[in-house]
Design brief:
This protein has one domain (21-394). The longest helix is centred in the first third of the chain and has 36 residues, at 36-71. It has helices at residues 4-15, 24-34, 36-71, 76-81, 85-97, 102-112, 118-127, 132-139, 141-165, 188-216, 221-224, 231-248, 256-260, 271-300, 304-311, 315-323, 329-339, 345-354, 360-366, 368-394. The chain is an all-alpha fold. It holds the Pfam family ArsP_2.
Length: 395
C-alpha cells in the first residue's frame, strides 16, 4: 500500500511533467498573434518565414530526396569511393557538402565500422553545413552554392593533410552496431503527426511555391487574386503555425540532442515525407531566429545589426564557436541571422566550415576521442577562412 509520503513524492515528480515540450513554440506563436501589441509583427514575420523560407526549403528538399533515391541505386560510385584514401577524402568532402546531415553521418559511421579512414571524417565534417545549407540555398542560391563549393575545397585539403599525419585507424574504437530507427520505435501519436506532416506539404507545396515565386518577383498577391488586404500574410501565418503544431507532436524533447538535431526518418519513407520532416525542423529554428530578431528590435529599439557590427573582428570567432556545438539547430540560427543582416559573411563562413551538424552525435556516442579531435581539426580551417574573408573584404 502506498504511504502518504511516497504518494506525495510521486505526485511531485509527475505534477510538473510536460509532454511534448515542442508545443511551447506553437502555443507561444498563438499567444503572440492573439496579443494586439505583437499581432501585426508576428503575422508578418510568420508569413515571411513561411512564404520566403519554408516553401523554398521544402521545394529544394523534395528535389534533393528524389535525387538521393536515384543516386542510391548505383554501385559504380561506391567502388570508386573505396578505391584509395585520396578518393575517400574527395568523395567524403562531396558527401559532406550535400545539404543536410545524411552524407556526413554515412561517412562518420563508415569510419567507426572500419570502411574509411580518419582523414575522411575530418574532410566530411569540414565540408558539411548540415540543414543550414537548405536554408542558405533557398534564400540566396548563389551564396549557398558558393559556400558549398568552398566547403568541398577546404574539406579535401583538410582531409589530405590529416591523411599525411595520421593512419586510417587513428582513434578508431571497436565498432558497435548502429540501430536504424523504425516506425515501431515511435509512439502512435508521433507516427500520426509524422504522416500528417507529409500530407500537409503534399497538399500545399505546389500552390505555396507559386505564391512564393510570385512574391519573390514583388507581385502583390492580394491584389492579383482580389483578396482583402493582408489576406496572404494571414494565410502564411496560419500555415506556419499549423506546420509547427504538427512538428511539435512528432518528437519529445528529452535532452540536448533531441532539441537541436533533425528528426529520425525511416529509410523507406517517401521523399515528400522526408522533405516535410526536415522542412518543419528547419522552419522551427528559422521562426525562432526571426522572432527573436524582430521582437528584440521592436521592444528594445536595439538594432541587432548595429550591435553585431560593434563586435567587428570577433564575429568570425563567434560563428566558429557556435559551429562547434553538435546539431543543426544552432547553425540554422546563425544562417538566419546572416540572412537577416545581423551577422556578416565572415561569421557565416567560419560557422559553415566548423559546424558538423548532426553527424557529430553518432561520433560522440561511438568514438568520442575521434569526434573531439576531428572537431578541433575542422575548427582550424574555419578560423583561417573566416578571418581571411574578414581581413580581405570586411575590415
Amino acid at each position: 500500500m502506498m504511504t502518504t509520503n511516497s504518494f506525495s513524492q510521486s505526485l511531485s515528480l509527475s505534477q510538473f511533467s510536460l509532454q511534448h515540450k515542442r508545443l511551447i513554440l506553437p502555443i507561444t506563436l498563438l499567444a503572440l498573434v492573439g496579443a494586439e501589441t505583437t499581432r501585426d509583427l508576428t503575422v508578418t514575420t510568420l508569413s515571411d518565414a513561411f512564404w520566403a523560407v519554408s516553401t523554398y526549403v521544402a521545394f529544394t528538399l523534395v528535389i534533393y530526396h528524389y535525387l538521393s533515391n536515384i543516386m542510391g541505386k548505383t554501385n559504380r560510385i561506391t567502388a570508386l569511393y573505396n578505391k584509395s584514401r585520396t578518393n575517400q577524402v574527395v568523395f567524403s568532402s562531396l558527401l559532406g557538402a550535400l545539404p543536410g546531415c545524411g552524407g556526413a553521418i554515412v561517412v562518420t559511421t563508415q569510419y567507426i565500422s572500419g570502411k574509411v579512414g580518419f582523414g575522411s571524417v575530418v574532410a566530411v565534417l569540414t565540408a558539411t553545413m548540415g540543414d543550414a545549407a537548405f536554408l542558405l540555398i533557398a534564400a540566396q542560391p548563389k551564396v549557398g552554392f558558393g559556400v558549398m563549393a568552398l566547403g568541398v575545397v577546404v574539406g579535401i585539403v583538410s582531409g589530405m593533410v590529416v591523411n599525411a599525419i595520421h593512419k586510417d585507424d587513428f582513434l578508431r574504437p571497436e565498432s558497435p552496431q548502429i540501430k536504424e530507427p523504425t516506425k515501431r520505435d515511435i509512439p502512435c501519436l508521433q507516427v500520426k503527426a509524422i504522416n500528417l506532416q507529409g500530407t500537409f506539404w503534399k497538399l500545399v507545396l505546389i500552390p505555396a511555391t507559386i505564391v512564393a515565386v510570385l512574391g519573390s518577383f514583388q507581385v502583390d498577391i492580394n491584389q492579383l487574386f482580389h483578396l482583402p488586404e493582408h489576406s496572404i500574410e494571414w494565410i502564411g501565418a496560419i500555415l506556419a503555425i499549423g506546420s509547427m503544431m504538427l512538428w511539435a507532436l512528432t518528437k519529445e524533447i528529452s535532452d540536448y540532442q533531441s532539441t537541436v538535431s533533425e528528426d529520425n526518418k525511416c529509410v523507406s519513407s517517401h521523399p515528400i515525407q522526408k522533405a516535410a520532416q526536415d522542412t518543419n525542423f528547419v522552419s522551427a529554428w528559422v521562426i525562432v531566429a526571426f522572432l527573436i530578431f524582430e521582437l528584440t528590435t521592436y521592444f528594445s529599439g536595439i538594432n541587432l545589426h548595429t550591435v553585431f557590427l560593434g563586435y567587428g573582428m570577433w564575429m568570425p570567432l563567434i560563428g566558429l564557436a557556435i559551429g562547434l556545438l553538435p546539431g543543426c539547430g544552432p547553425q540554422i540560427l546563425v544562417t538566419s541571422l546572416y540572412l537577416s543582416g545581423a551577422m556578416p559573411m565572415s561569421a557565416q563562413l567560419s560557422n559553415a566550415i566548423s559546424n558538423d551538424g548532426d553527424a557529430l552525435f553518432p561520433a560522440i556516442a561511438l568514438a568520442p576521442k575521434a569526434a573531439m579531435v576531428a572537431t578541433f581539426y575542422s575548427a582550424v580551417p574555419a578560423f583561417v577562412v573566416g578571418y581571411g574573408y574578414y581581413f580581405l573584404f570586411e575590415m
